[in-house]
Amino acid sequence: MFKAVYAFLGEDEVTMRSRVGDLIGEAVPEAFRDFNLDQFSPGDAAPAEIEEAARRNPLGEGRRVVVVRDMGGFSPDQQEEIAAAALRLARLKDGLTTLALVAPGLDRRRKPYKLLRALDDEPSGQVLEFPAPRPWEIDGWIVDRAGQKGIDIHRQAAVALVELVGDDLGQLDSELVKLSLYVGPGVTVTADQIEAMVGRRRGESPWDLPRRLLGGDTAAAQVLLERLLTAGENPVFLVSVLTRYCLEVWQVALLLDAGRAEKAVIQEVGIRKFAARETFAAARRIPLDAFPRMLGALKECDRGLKSRSRQQKLLLEQLLVTLALEQQRDRGDGTGE
Across 159-168, 177-186, 253-262, which has the greatest mean pLDDT? Predict the structure, then answer.
């Protein structure tokens, strides 16, 4: 039995969109998709038009499915209107049309999220939760996701993929698609195959760039930056990696400064075990006052990369020097530790 309304909530957008695809595949026969499948994104239609589409009956066989992609991209008022319409539709006990609201990362404090949560109380509404895996669960997520694609992968190989690519679920899923073509059926994927497929050796991951830089090895970071750019890494992505790691180290430094134990910090921040030692070392080495300036430099570089495309390499090289100097400035003028 299908419901009239499904709300897909959470942060795991990859699994969420996969489940929406499953819903479409089960509910709408291929031959009738031109007639019975409507998909809306922010800017495509007003909430009233979406509700109207969700009230129309299907043509021919199967159900009609109306998908609202990225509900969080609508304005707050529109989000509230869509959620209210979903509640009205979920009160219908019968019907041949299903409305699927895809809302990754929707703010839990706002009224639209609370309205969608109330769908479970209606006769034909259901909330489906897709929380993002915690950092120490990502390798298990990779194994499960690979299995859905028909790939058998060692847990050690999954850990290697995270080390080389990072923890962005969308990028990891893209690498699994490439992996399915690279290894073929009936092969158990190893860490060596992961490295060959990704095209880099260990120690040449984008995530090693901030570890080396915030670990105090500026020269190694500069060498790695050159290799990553030569391998085709996106400069904006590299800045986002640096920013995320800087924020993580700052959070760890604040907790340590407040007297929290390492084990509690690992759980609260969600540090991956293989990176914990380096993260704690950076948090203890860099003065707390340096982090706001470092984040300011990262923000300025990101803005420059998006407006001065011909100078991207120079901007990144200057950024590494600035971040290295900011880590040491307080120590040099006597205001640090």
Answer: 253-262
Q: How far is CA 269 from the centre of its chain?
A: 16
34-64: per-residue pLDDT in tens? Answer: 999 999 988 888 999 999 999 999 998 889 9
CA dist 145 and 7 (Å) reads 22
**Measured CA angle at 144 (ends 146, 154), to 5 deg:** 70
The CATH superfamily label for domain 5-130 reads P-loop containing nucleotide triphosphate hydrolases (3.40.50.300)
Write out the CATH class of domain 208-333.
mainly alpha
Provide the CA 97 distance to its chain's centre, in angstroms: 31
Output the CA–CA distances (angstroms, integers) from residue 118 to 88, 115, 132, in the order listed.
11, 5, 22
Give 134's Cβ-side CA count (13 Å radius): 9
For 121-178, what is each residue's pLDDT tens digit? 999 999 999 999 988 899 999 999 999 888 899 888 898 888 877 788 888 888 888 8
Residue written as token pair 């509900």: 71
* Neighbouring C-beta atoms of residue 154, cutoff 10 Å: 16
Asked if residue 223 has pLDDT above 90, the reply is no
* Residue burial 257-284, b: 16+ Cβ < 10 Å; e: rest: eeeeeeeebbeebbbbeebbebbbebbe
